[in-house]
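User: Could you go from structure to sequence for me? I need the amino acid at each position, not a summary. Structure tokens:
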């Protein structure tokens, strides 16, 4: 017998152990309450049935929008009256073209689209940085290096054609009655500056978007714009103040039961708050970023919770993001205020060491004993000094794949695998692309 999603999440949370990944991409629909359904996808879609039609939260990504709709239509065939974007990452808005296509095919009006006022600005930024976003998303998921992409600014646009624009914006809060049901929309900062979480009193339900993702909060992504840990925590505490009994994130499992929900939100909020406090306290003593990264950490027991494991983002990256938020881009080391180019520095070090091959050999020795951080510095210097050396690139590829295997977070794994692919290609090897969807977030 298949375990219902709410029973599964209760078991994971109550036991403190998840025997399978809680983030599932099945495109299967589960009914969470009368007139409330969830389709689990790369980014979920939540649907609420009202007298005026369906209110859908997010549309999933461009590769899954149609499949989500197919599952949804097996449950209910009412028109989608309102589409709510929890935020502007492409895996949440990119499937809206399928919603629009269905409406046009059936001769229906397009749904009204609700989003925070910052969301259209985000989409504008994505269009202005189309090539850059393709590059960093390829790298984030271990994909091929820039030179093998379909031209960084070519191919399909990062924001899919046909993506529906927001038609109803709000700033802080907004309450609407739709088909006899009340929806309270709340702005929040966190992973983005355009986030919306929604309280639906009839079902004592919260649609949380990515403010809770069944992973350590994605608040430090090394390639993305500023994130906001204290505002993130504050939004979770606002959710805790409701009478919530059903909590539905856009990634991972829905959660039922007020006490269970509040315990999860408290753990995430307090973890973020403590991390900010520790980083800022160190900054106030004059510590450099290097000092802080080496001294501030999160209790390992917290990272064992099934909804706080660092499998996507990780505390070290969040620490660096907190520094950027409170202290700017300079890390406090004088030589890195206006540094030498990587190649110029590498050439001097290689000359002192006796050549690029010596650096590469030493990098291999360090890798063998698990000293990946220093090893990667040395092998990068070696390849910068001898960019045409097949042997050095083969060593570099092997080192970065070993480092990838030792990492827990997808962010680190993806970037290190991308570096390995870069060297494989430079060494003349055929690189099998492991490109995933290039639109997890922006």
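Assistant: Here is the amino acid at each position, in order:
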């Amino acid at each position: 017998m298949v375990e219902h999603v709410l029973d599964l999440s209760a078991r994971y949370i109550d036991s403190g152990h998840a025997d399978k990944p809680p983030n599932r991409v099945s495109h299967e629909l589960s009914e969470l309450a009368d007139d409330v359904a969830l389709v689990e996808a790369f980014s979920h879609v939540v649907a609420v049935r009202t007298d005026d039609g369906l209110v859908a939260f997010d549309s999933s990504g461009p590769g899954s929008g149609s499949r989500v709709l197919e599952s949804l239509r097996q449950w209910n065939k009412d028109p989608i009256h309102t589409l709510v974007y929890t935020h502007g990452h492409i895996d949440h808005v990119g499937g809206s073209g399928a919603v629009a296509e269905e409406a046009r095919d059936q001769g229906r009006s397009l749904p009204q689209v609700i989003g925070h006022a910052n969301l259209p600005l985000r989409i504008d930024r994505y269009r202005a940085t189309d090539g850059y976003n393709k590059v960093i998303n390829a790298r984030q998921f271990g994909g091929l290096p820039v030179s093998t992409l379909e031209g960084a600014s070519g191919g399909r646009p990062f924001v899919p054609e046909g993506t529906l624009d927001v038609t109803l914006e709000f700033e802080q809060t907004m309450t609407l009655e739709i088909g006899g049901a009340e929806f309270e929309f709340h702005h929040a900062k966190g992973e983005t500056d355009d986030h919306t979480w929604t309280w639906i009193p009839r079902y004592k339900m919260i649609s949380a978007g990515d403010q809770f993702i069944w992973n350590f909060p994605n608040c430090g992504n090394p390639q993305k714009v500023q994130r906001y840990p204290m505002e993130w925590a504050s939004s979770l505490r606002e959710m805790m103040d409701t009478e919530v009994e059903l909590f539905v994130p856009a990634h991972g499992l829905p959660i039922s039961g007020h006490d269970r929900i509040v315990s999860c939100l408290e753990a995430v909020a307090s973890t973020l708050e403590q991390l900010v406090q520790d980083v800022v306290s160190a900054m106030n003593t004059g510590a450099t970023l290097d000092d802080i990264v080496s001294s501030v950490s999160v209790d390992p027991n917290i990272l064992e919770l099934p909804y706080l494991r660092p499998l996507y983002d990780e505390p070290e990256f969040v620490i660096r993001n907190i520094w950027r938020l409170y202290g700017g881009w300079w890390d406090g080391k004088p030589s890195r205020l206006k540094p030498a180019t990587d190649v110029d520095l590498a050439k001097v070090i290689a000359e002192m060491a006796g050549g690029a091959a010596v650096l590469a050999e030493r990098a291999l020795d360090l890798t063998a004993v698990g000293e990946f951080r220093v090893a990667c510095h040395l092998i990068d210097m070696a390849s910068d000094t001898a960019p045409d050396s097949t042997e050095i690139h083969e060593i570099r590829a092997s080192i970065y794949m070993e480092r990838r295997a030792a990492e827990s977070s997808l962010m680190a794994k993806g970037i290190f695998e991308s570096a390995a692919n870069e060297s494989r290609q430079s060494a003349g090897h055929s690189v099998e692309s492991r490109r995933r969807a290039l639109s997890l977030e922006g």
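One structural detail worth keeping in mind: Residues 52 and 178 are 7 Å apart (CA to CA).
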